[in-house]
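**Sequence with structure:**
===
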Amino acid sequence: MQIWVDADACPAAIKEILYRAAERARIRVTLVANQSLRIPASPYIRFTQVPAGLDVADRRIVELLEPGDLVVTADIPLAAAAIDKNAHALNPRGELYTKDNIRERLSLRNFMDELRGSGVATGGPAVLNQRDRQAFANALDSLLAKAAAP
């Protein structure tokens, strides 16, 4: 398993959890973004910069993704593409996207996008809190344990 991070919008607290997990589990974490990022010096942590543009990082992740890999993203279309490639997708709040819930999430996302497009103010996501960070860490640990199991 390799972990791919949609890093442009990934909260710093989640990146820190991923850096620690990479070292602890000795698993490769690759952050993909269209802006330069500072990452810790580690044989397990890599950064790939892509050109600016809509969904360029997402397309690069999908292109490099292998079955069984993990994508960390709040981007629902990217999560759906990962699931279609038999990979795992986890959002920064610790919610695992699955074949059972991704279509519903896509429908809701598209509906909200239509509302915003028609001028309805829908608000943004709540600020990431300690409970969200803990849920993410727990979900990540669970996925890493399953990947390490024989």
The first strand starts at residue 3 and ends at 6. The CA atoms of residues 87 and 129 lie 27 Å apart.
